[in-house]
Amino acid sequence: MRKLIFILILITFISTSVSAEESLILKLKVEGAIDPIVADYIARGIAEAEKNNATALIIQLDTPGGLDLAMRKIIKDIQSSPVPVVTYVYPKGARAASAGSFILIASHIAAMAPGTNVGAAHPVSIEGRDVSEKIVNDAKAYIKSIAKLRGRNVTLAESFVVNSTSITAEEALEYNIIDIVAEDYPSLLAQLNGKRVENKTLKTKNAKIKEIPMNFREEILHIISNPNIAYILFMAGIYGIIFELANPGAILPGVVGGICI
Questions:
Q1: Residue of 81, 98, 107, 159 marked active site
Q2: Beta bridge pairs of residue 197
Q3: Structure pTM?
Q4: Per residue in 101-117, pLDDT tens?
Q5: 10 Å Cβ neighbour count for 233?
């Protein structure tokens, strides 16, 4: 009987020790354009990370860029986050272009996988045209300020905006744009372990990663916010209304057209 009690106590002790060593990391997956839906998704992820006392929040990033206002909201949320935010450009072939490079630089820890790239952050209009010098200067000052805040290469960050410079993961590490080049998540966690973020030391050795996916509403809105999809819907709406005007009483084309627009 005594042996049984001893074994049960030992098992409880071991279980408690393992649980104490295992930390929680939340993960968000951002693919496609940076838009207000992505900004809200990241804000929700930061709130969940704080609520669950997570060791860190990882933003897995693959983006061609996006809207300036959405990007700035994301960066504000990252800068005020009580939980360290790690942005990881992953998998191979992914990129942190334009607005994505700002987000990567602004993160507490910036990481990239081999075969990824960052940069090409010269501002353009929604139509893809060049913007005024005033807007370029504003973007230049902004990327310099966030690079300086994180102790990154200010000159190269500025070149992302002014010259549309784009570099590989290895170059980003060499020139102090990022902190880590990691082949995969095990490699990332191993390199994160023991890193200091402000007044916190990350303990990621036995961390459990839990993904927070976009909910159904966020996924749908993110898809239709894509400029290409939005343009198709707009044109479908125009043609629907034209058909309704040409054929009064058809009703359906007009209704569908109105919804699309």
A1: 98
A2: 200
A3: 0.83
A4: 999 999 999 999 999 99
A5: 16
| Structural domain spans, the chain | 2-215, 226-260
β-bridge partners, 209: 25
DSSP 11: H
CA distance 148 to 174: 17
Quick check: is 98 catalytic? yes
Q: Is 6 helix (H, G, I), strand (E, B) or coil?
A: helix
Per DSSP bridges, beta strands 166-168 and 117-119 are antiparallel
User: Could you give the CA distance from residue 222 to residue 244 in angstroms, rounded to a whole number?
Assistant: 29
Q: Is residue 134 among the annotated active site residues?
A: yes
Report the topology of domain 2-215: 2-enoyl-CoA Hydratase; Chain A, domain 1 (3.90.226)
The DSSP annotation for 70-90 comes to HHHHHHHHHHT-SS-EEEEE-
Candidates 3, 19, 80, 134; catalytic one: 134
